[in-house]
């Protein structure tokens, strides 16, 4: 059902419609005109906020990385902190990828290059840095190493599962992303 858009934050409404579209539509088939129809506005109104499809996809990727960070924060809070929270953020990362495959792939194909951080300044990146720093006692070189190592493991596992190379199995996710056995202690 198409709802007619009247007032408020049109940009946010367009991003939300785009996120919903990604649940059922391939990235390449997302259309600004269809998003406009879904929100109930003219295509011209969309172009005031997104000059082209790429701009919309970048906005969707930005919203997606924040949703990933929110899922990771909720998992860390449920775990209660410490190494358990670090593992929980990694498991949440893989589970988010499996629950939202098109959005997950879009995040890593349409976000701007991260610069000096591992994957930007998003909530997800800040959580990774915070958890890695806590696990390494704040040593900058060790924190960076652990950030890259942890991200490589969870991203690799997510991609292997998304690509059908490994089964999308919760028990396997828990087994692989276990901080007690995954990363050797350097002390």
Automatic annotation (TrEMBL):
Residues 8-68 form the HTH tetR-type domain. Residues 31-50 bind DNA. It comes from the Bacteria. SUPFAM superfamilies: Homeodomain-like (SSF46689), Tetracyclin repressor-like, C-terminal domain (SSF48498). Gene3D superfamilies: Tetracycline Repressor, domain 2. This is TetR family transcriptional regulator. It holds the Pfam family TetR_N. Keywords: DNA-binding, Transcription, Transcription regulation. Coiled coil: none annotated. GO terms for molecular function: DNA-binding transcription factor activity; transcription cis-regulatory region binding.
């Amino acid at each position: 059902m198409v709802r007619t858009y009247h007032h408020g934050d049109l940009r946010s409404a367009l991003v939300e419609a785009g996120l919903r579209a990604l649940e059922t539509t391939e990235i390449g088939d997302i259309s600004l005109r269809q998003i406009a129809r879904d929100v109930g506005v003219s295509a011209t109104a969309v172009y005031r906020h997104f000059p082209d499809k790429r701009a919309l996809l970048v906005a969707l990727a930005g919203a997606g990385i924040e949703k990933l960070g929110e899922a990771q924060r909720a998992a860390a809070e449920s775990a209660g902190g410490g190494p358990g929270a670090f593992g929980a953020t990694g498991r949440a990362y893989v589970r988010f990828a499996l629950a939202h495959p098109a959005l997950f792939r879009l995040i890593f194909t349409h976000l701007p290059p991260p610069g000096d951080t591992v994957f930007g300044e998003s909530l997800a990146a800040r959580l990774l840095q915070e958890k890695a720093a806590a696990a390494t006692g704040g040593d900058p070189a060790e924190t960076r190493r652990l950030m890259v190592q942890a991200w490589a493991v969870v991203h690799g596992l997510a991609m292997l599962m998304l690509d059908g190379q490994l089964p999308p199995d919760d028990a396997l996710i828990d087994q692989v992303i276990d901080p007690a056995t995954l990363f050797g202690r350097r002390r």
